[in-house]
Amino acid sequence: MTVAERLDTRLAALAEISAGGPGVTRPSFGALERDAHAQVAAWAAQDGARAETDPAGNTVLIYGEGEPYLLVGSHLDSVPEGGRYDGTVGVLAGMEAAASVASELELGMRVVIFSAEEGARFGRPCLGSELATGAAPDGLLDGLRDGEGRSAADVAHESGLRPEACPPWLRAPEVAAYLEVHIEQGRVLERERVRLGVVDVIAGAARLEVELGGRPEHSGTTPMDDRLDALTAAAEVVLEVERIGREARHGVATVGRLDVHPNSVTTVPGGVRLVVDVRDVDAGRQDEAAAAVRAAITRIAGARGTPVEIRELASRAPVMLSAWPRLALAQACGEERLPFRVLPSGAGHDAAVVAHTAPSALLFVPTPNGRSHTPDEACRTEDVAVACAVVARALRRLDRDARGVADPDLTTTTPEG
What we know:
Elements: H1 3-15, H2 31-46, E1 50-53, E2 59-64, E3 69-75, H3 88-101, E4 108-114, H4 127-133, H5 140-143, H6 152-158, E5 175-183, H7 188-192, E6 196-202, E7 204-213, H8 230-247, E8 252-261, E9 271-280, H9 283-304, E10 308-316, E11 319-320, H10 323-335, E12 340-345, H11 350-354, E13 360-365, H12 381-402
Parallel strand pairs: 3-4, 3-5, 5-13, 6-12
Antiparallel strand pairs: 1-2, 2-4, 6-11, 6-13, 7-9, 7-10, 8-9
């Protein structure tokens, strides 16, 4: 079986571990996420690797014992009705690369499957990697709630996890370097007809939870000029967020979630909860856009007499990834004679969190039509197989570089990026 064929088989099997409905739905910290971790651990055992799980639900597959060690990986949770490639490609590619090189390395070799990377359920992404690196503030999971009002801590406990007891284990010098493979979730690579992308910077994100109050009344008997309609206020907010996002040079601003109460055809909306997502590759511009969103919401609520509360769910600055592992990926592309593109990532990834405690790099494979977070998400496993070969080469180079060993067989030429 070729690497691409094995990837196809495993991607299909993991796609079956999903809630009902179109696409893939594996909520963060949920039972389906744990089932997916268990399935991957079983495949790793066939390669002779052993699995360990930390209290936050991060699964570590140990292909080569010892410290310091090289680490590759991604995540297996998904957004509701998402695609089968987001995160999953990085886990499976990491396993392929680790299995192929572990016996050659002097450093240890491990694959990590992070828990709760997606921010769709609790409004804050990368919870597993935050806990593993020690970046999560005390009590963070108690204050994050899903659409049913359950805290992230309670959901994790229901799955047998104890995230509050997770030690900060992911950091240098124990982790020599971290590599992640991911679908691009955009159209740059496809448009420029290159096989791979080496990411230099990962955009930051500010998430604001907004509660707009209203007065629920009968929609047939309440005059239009005597209403306090939370949803019409929210509609103004959504359009203003869109305007701010359109005016940003390299940023975006989105309202992707709206919860209306009581959500009845015959009742004036009495309350709306929405979440604003502001992103940019420049920290100053991100802060300016988030401040503009706050000011606009306050102005709209004031003009309408609508009570409003704004709460920050998350705020992460953009992250420049480490030069050393990025160079290793670029050199590996050159050795494989593959043209590549250096590009930023507008989406957040665990690599951005890990970069604060260990050298980190991110490799993109093309996403046909650029569609992601949808059942229509696509990826060619032939491209992922190419990425596996590049990551394997990069791991060999990182192993030698970390030990200060020169190898004349490893060239330093790269194609034009």
